């Protein structure tokens, strides 16, 4: 889900802000204690996710390392947080960017170059830097997929400001001709390692952020994909299948589902 749980105390603060009267002190103590529990249960993301940037051709086969001057038909670039990087995957073939690149190559019959700018732990505040890195590296991509939002919830970046930062990144990409697909904030209520009522607070804020993100993305000319709506039922029904060993990040199966949902919108947007 892409969350930095070193900052779960922020969620406790969010819960307290929703409380009133004499219940405030009790709510603060309860939520702060649960935030501490979440920090102890959910590991921090230290590992480096598998990387498999390069060129994917129709018909499968090994990824071909891209070198300057090598031809390709579609350039797909991935932005966002640990979910976008495929954190938790053991095999690069399971990373969502790779799945989308392979799927797009098969469905279009074209050679797809995959590049990843996403960073583990990123929030909307890091998107501008990721887009800057893209512009420095070379010509803009034909298509971009962004997955972001969970860390904005845990560090209390604010729903409005976080959504607007995302919208600004989409607008920059669209201004250089890039087709943009955005997987909005996931449903944090499926992460059972977060105790109640802290989990309810995270879910409530995350769903509100997802709605605000969708509005900003549409205004900027991108295509929002509501991952919370599309994926949460599967995670609720089959948590042992959909989560990785850390019980927080998606498994290969969970990432496959996300990539499938995003690929549908990506293919339609590219025509």
SSE map:
Elements: H1 9-17, H2 23-41, E1 54-56, E2 74-80, H3 82-85, H4 96-108, E3 112-116, H5 127-137, E4 143-147, H6 150-154, H7 159-175, E5 179-183, H8 198-220, E6 223-225, H9 227-237, H10 239-242, H11 252-270
Parallel strand pairs: 2-3, 2-4, 4-5, 5-6
Antiparallel strand pairs: 1-3
Helix pairs in contact: 1-2, 4-11, 7-8, 9-11
Write structural notes for this entry.
With 271 residues, the chain is α/β, with parallel strands linked by helices. The chain has one domain (20-270): Rossmann fold (3-Layer(aba) Sandwich), CATH 3.40.50.1110. It contains eleven helices and six strands. It has a six-stranded mixed beta sheet with strand order 1-3-2-4-5-6, sandwiched between helices. Strand 5 (179-183), helix 8 (198-220) and strand 6 (223-225) form a beta-alpha-beta unit. Helix 1 runs antiparallel to helix 2, helix 7 runs parallel beside helix 8 and helix 9 packs antiparallel against helix 11. Residues 5-10 and 12-27 have low confidence and may be disordered.
Mean pLDDT: 86
The whole-angstrom Rg is: 19 Å
Helical residues, percent: 40-55%
Continuous helix count: 11
Strands, count:
6
Structural class: alpha/beta
Largest pleated sheet: 6 strands, mixed
- As laid out across the biggest beta sheet, the strand order is 1-3-2-4-5-6
CATH superfamily: SGNH hydrolase
| Tally of separate domains | 1
What portion of residues belong to β-strands? 5-15%
Helices and strands, in order, run as HHEEHHEHEHHEHEHHH
Per CATH, the architecture is 3-Layer(aba) Sandwich
Low-confidence stretches: 5-10, 12-27
Q: Note the gap between the termini.
A: 29 Å
CATH uppermost class: Alpha Beta
The dominant shape is: globular
CATH topology-level name: Rossmann fold
């Amino acid at each position: 889900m892409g969350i930095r749980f070193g900052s779960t105390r922020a969620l406790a603060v969010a819960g307290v802000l929703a409380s009133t009267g004499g219940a405030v002190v009790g709510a603060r103590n309860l939520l702060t204690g649960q935030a501490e529990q979440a920090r102890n249960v959910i590991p921090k993301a230290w590992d480096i996710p598998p990387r498999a940037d390069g060129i994917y051709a129709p018909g499968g086969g090994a990824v071909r390392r891209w070198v300057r001057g090598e031809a390709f038909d579609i350039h797909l670039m991935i932005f966002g947080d640990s979910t976008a990087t495929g954190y938790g995957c053991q095999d690069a073939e399971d990373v969502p960017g790779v799945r989308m690149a392979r799927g797009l190559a098969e469905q279009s019959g074209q050679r797809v170059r995959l590049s990843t700018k996403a960073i583990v732990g990123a929030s909307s505040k890091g998107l501008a830097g990721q887009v800057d890195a893209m512009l420095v590296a070379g010509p803009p991509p034909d298509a971009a997929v962004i997955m972001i939002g969970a860390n904005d919830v845990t560090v209390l970046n604010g729903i409005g400001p976080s959504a607007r930062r995302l919208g600004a990144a989409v607008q920059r990409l669209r201004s250089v001709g890039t087709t943009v697909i955005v997987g909005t904030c996931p449903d944090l209520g499926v992460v059972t390692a977060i105790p109640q009522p802290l989990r309810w607070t995270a879910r409530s804020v995350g769903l509100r952020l997802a709605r605000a993100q969708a509005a900003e993305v549409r205004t900027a000319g991108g295509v929002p994909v509501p991952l919370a709506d599309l994926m949460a039922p599967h995670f609720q029904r089959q948590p042992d299948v959909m989560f990785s060993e850390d019980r927080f990040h998606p498994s290969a199966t969970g990432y496959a589902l996300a990539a499938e949902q995003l690929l549908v919108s990506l293919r339609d947007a590219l025509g």
